[in-house]
């Protein structure tokens, strides 16, 4: 993560990271909502797992919302767009069933986990509360990645076709969010 002076000015680095993560979690909640809707028809066997994951994402969103509120920092300007974009991505990928849904989660979480690790490095010793908020979600994001990977490798087509596109989109959203 390149942390330019511009990024550092807005709400401080911790606030900036909390805003992006909060918006990202809203995206994640909505990806799962879109996928759950489609999975009811296309992959009913994974609906309960998706609901479980969405429950985690709602809690993650709440963790960041609470921390932002305590700092008096407004939500990111990308928040609504993340939600709408996430929902559309969820509907679209859900249309293709279990393999596409799992490949999407693997791709998103791979990017997210790498950003979370970098965030923890830069927050270390600078912002204990932001660092704690990030640390609170890492193990569940890892779990989403790992459990989805087992479904995804059963349909390598989607991992090959969809995952690179979703990875680039996720990187772009985080990049833009850090600058909004
Ligand atoms: Fe999350
Ligand atoms: Fe997740």
The CATH homologous superfamily is named Ferritin, core subunit, four-helix bundle
Shape: elongated
CATH architecture: Up-down Bundle
Q: List each distinct ligand once.
A: fe (ii) ion
Element string (H = helix, E = strand): HHHHHHHH
CATH topology: Ferritin
Core attributes:
mainly alpha; binds fe (ii) ion; single chain; 180 residues; Ferritin
Give a verbal description of the structure:
With 180 residues, this protein is mainly α. It has one domain (5-175): Ferritin, core subunit, four-helix bundle (Ferritin), CATH 1.20.1260. Helices cover 83% and strands 0% of the residues. It has helices spanning 5-9, 12-42, 47-71, 79-94, 98-123, 128-152, 156-161, 163-177. The longest helix is centred in the first third of the chain and has 31 residues, at 12-42. The protein is elongated, with a radius of gyration of 16 Å. Mean pLDDT is 93; it is low at 4-10. Bound molecules: fe (ii) ion (2 copies). One fe (ii) ion binds at residues 25, 28, 57, 60, 137, 141. Residues 25, 28, 57, 60, 137, 141 line the site of one fe (ii) ion.
């Amino acid at each position: 993560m390149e942390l330019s002076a511009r990024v550092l000015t807005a709400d401080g680095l911790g606030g900036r990271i909390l805003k992006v993560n909060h918006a990202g979690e809203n995206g994640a909640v909505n990806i799962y909502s879109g996928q759950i809707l489609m999975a009811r028809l296309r992959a009913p066997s994974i609906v309960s797992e998706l609901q479980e994951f969405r429950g985690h994402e709602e809690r993650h969103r709440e963790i960041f919302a609470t921390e932002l509120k305590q700092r008096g920092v407004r939500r990111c300007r990308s928040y609504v767009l993340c939600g709408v974009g996430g929902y559309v991505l969820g509907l679209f990928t859900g249309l293709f069933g279990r393999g596409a849904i799992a490949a999407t989660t693997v791709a998103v979480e791979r990017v997210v986990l790498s950003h979370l690790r970098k965030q923890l490095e830069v927050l270390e010793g600078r912002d204990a509360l932001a660092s704690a908020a990030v640390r609170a979600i890492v193990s569940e994001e890892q779990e989403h990645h790992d459990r989805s990977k087992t479904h995804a490798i059963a349909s390598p087509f989607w991992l090959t076709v969809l995952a690179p596109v979703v990875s680039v989109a996720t990187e772009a959203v985080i990049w833009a969010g850090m600058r909004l």
